[in-house]
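Record type: monomer structure entry
Structure origin: computed from sequence
Chain ID: A
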Amino acid sequence: MGNLIAVAYDELDTAQNVMRTLNELSVEHAIALDDAVIVEHRPDGKIKLHQTMKPAAAGAAAGALWGGLIGLLFLAPFVGMAVGAAAGGATGAMADVGVDDRFMKHLAEDLQPGTAAVILLVRESTPDKVLPRLSPYGGRVIHSSLSDDAEAHLREALSTPAS
């Protein structure tokens, strides 16, 4: 089971930069995310979720792979890929994996208009590699399922500028 972490930022741009850094860290295998969303509380008061994980695309890719393999058995790999991609895409679109949208919107309601938060479902991470890369952005932890010690370490890292 992963840890849920939500960190608020004063600007959407900062949250987007954090997400780019998290993507880089993911490529470097310093962090594994099951879900990552930027929640924006717009100046007009509306709440906008910027999903970064695309279940429909992932489902279509997996479906195409399995459909192609099964299609090879019946000598119709392209038909199998097409059917598999369609079925996988539909399944992925219907599956709401990760953090519940209502929960994210509820968290965003407590943000000031014009601000944003990054909400993560972290499967695993290497904190000594992740925290130094995220600390320059600052932010404040608004929700966490981390242990008290781990959350205190995260809060300290986000409040202390990197040297």
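Annotation 1: The chain has a mean pLDDT of 78.
Annotation 2: Residues 55-73 form the longest helix (19 residues).
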